[in-house]
Amino acid sequence: xAGLTLQLDGRRWRExxxxxxxxxxxxxxVIKGNGYGFGLRQLAVEAADLGVDTIxxxxxxxxxxxxxxxxxxxxxxxxxxxxxxxxxxxxxxxRVITTVSRPDDVARLTELGSPPRVLIxxxxxxxxxxxxxxxxxWLTVVxxxxxxxxxxxxxxxxxxxxxxxxxxxxxxxxxxxxAPLWVSHLPADEALALxxxxxxxxxSPVPIRLRVGTRLWLGAESMRSTTATVLDVHRVxxxxxxxxxxxxxxxxxxxxxxxxxxxxxxxxEAPTSASTTRQRAVALxxxxxxxxxxxxxxxxxxxxxxxxxxxxxxQSSQIFLPxxxxxxAIGSEVPVELRLTTATVDEIRWV
Length: 351
Known about the structure:
By secondary structure, the protein is α/β, with parallel strands linked by helices. The chain is built from ten helices and 18 strands. The protein has two domains: 214 residues, Alanine racemase (TIM Barrel); 108 residues, Lyase, Ornithine Decarboxylase, Chain A, domain 1 (Beta Barrel). Helices cover 26% and strands 26% of the residues.
């Protein structure tokens, strides 16, 4: 039996990838974490087929997973950790570009022997990693001891004020040292405008590299779907106990056991920011239901989302179906809504 399956229209998905690549100046596909649900190696193969010269991973251990599938350069996005033996070894790898966000770490990189290829990150309003604008000039101290690949600017997702921030940081960086800008979360049209605006006296635009992950790999929602195999179905009567925690079922009905649990990312979701009155009301209502032991599952049966009987197990989940409903057949598949950045599927079915 299949378990959790991602069904993907490969032809249309790859057409989407080519469209994004053609419209994105200096595209650097981001391939990190769980590979956006597809797996790191699969995305490395797809990036190679796109013909890009560079990809970006999140952490050093991901380099070894993708390097055999991708022949070009690999940027490590997380700042260099001088205490990591793997990070130190990769810093002198000629195919690897290391990101640095602290002045002292740049100095320590120069002690490794072979000049490392380095991106220096500027601190944005995210307040995550990076040098403050007043510290960017520190690069001149070690400029001759590294291969300086450019400035990294990792912007927040919020559009309001994003371009102005990119321009401000880019100007400060280019004053310190003219070099390519490696930018995240800036739309292609804004990136092109920025490159032209900051261009040199000869009207040539500043070289810019756009790192893109979610929009590239997950931007074509209609081309994919996820399903879960029905593993078992049990008739139950009101008041009977079921599940690990032996809760009493609320009414006559069916316990439907479906593939997918915590190891797949079912029931796991990132916190969201409730910024509107409606979003706050939904969050309040959802929290109240969960406090009462009720949680809506991501599984759809007979056209409706169904309630979890209890929290998901490691590799399967139990959902409750009222007695008046016809239960799905064992071995059939039902739709399941997954956040692919946190999900691990058992199979990718190319259709």
